[in-house]
Amino acid sequence: ALELIDFKNALEQFQNLVEKMIIQKTKESSGLYTKDDDEIDYNKFCTTTQTLFGPAVKDQNIQAFFRKIVNNPGEKPEWPEIFGCFLGEGDGTASPLKEGMVLLVSEKRQITHSVVKRKDVIKGIVKVPLLHFTVTASQRGVLTVFSKQQILLYFHFYFHQDTAWIAGCDFLPNLKYVVAVTESTIILWDYKAKEREKNGFVIKPMKNCLLCVSTVPTSDHMAKDTILMGDDKGYVYLLTMTNDDFIMKPSEAEKESQFRFMDSESFNMPKRKLHDDWVVKIKYISALKCFASCSTHSISSFVLDDIKRLEDNLPVKEFSVPKGVNAFTYCGKAKVIVTGG
User: Fold this and answer.
1) Strands 200-204 and 259-263
2) Number of structural domains in the chain
3) pLDDT in tens, 292-316
4) pTM of structure
5) Cis ω on the peptide bond leading into residue 205 (within 30° of 0)?
6) Are residues 44 and 183 in the same domain?
7) Which UniProt keywords apply (predicted)?
8) 330 and 240 belong to one structural domain
9) Cα(210)–Cα(203) distance, rounded to whole angstroms?
10) Is 299 found in the same domain as 213?
11) HEC sequence for 196-235
């Protein structure tokens, strides 16, 4: 109860701080503001906020909140944003206890076992709802599978074959493999294999630098999967793999290696140049029965079309955005695609 009272007092002081800052920024934009000792700059705003809420707020959330007020003082941000929280449609009827839990007791579950070393970062994270686990890929070559409970059971796949960094990952739902791409290779990891040392396949070489990867979900449950990839020259690739592709005898050179190598030339891998710059994201949108890809180029920034367009030369549906598109997502409920440049 005392914690709730203290929090309400701190919140009231924070809201007063925001009101003063909005008034200040509004006067500044109209040229009526005169600087004085009560001026609220970023350092003062940050220090005051951290004094009020302590470690419950993070630097990046304070910075984002401050920037929002500076850029648009006429639209007051919601206070949960300072904690990195956003109110949903049903939050208005939440009980006081639940609201208190969001702010006073973290509901996040932290994985205490380190899966990446220093100077390494996570480059891809994919949820696999049907199997109740999550796949992550680190830049320096660690692929990890976490179970639903996120307990001790997880698997590692270290890729130290060359200095190429992993750019992204996904999961092949029918073949039950993890797929990842580096600058010059495609990695396929059999996380179920009993032999941990011989559970990786590498397709190489790729002529261009691969930047993103995504799988095409299917409902036929056949023993094959289709993979979409994008590179730094604007090409989008289509690769279909079956169980037969993994039946191979290791060569003498591979007996000492963690991997089994496949020649990229042995695969039928259609590709089509759809963009004039890097393909930074690719995704198959099942609800639309289309694939989508985006690029940082101002022309042909976003493409949305049937996957068959990768195997012919018919025109594709596309649109252009100044300075390109870096990210996109589809909302089935609203039936809209949102892009970010």
Assistant:
1) parallel
2) 2
3) 999 999 999 999 999 999 999 999 9
4) 0.65
5) yes
6) no
7) Repeat
8) yes
9) 12
10) yes
11) HHHCEEEEECCCCCEEEEEEECCCCCCCEEEEEEEECCCE
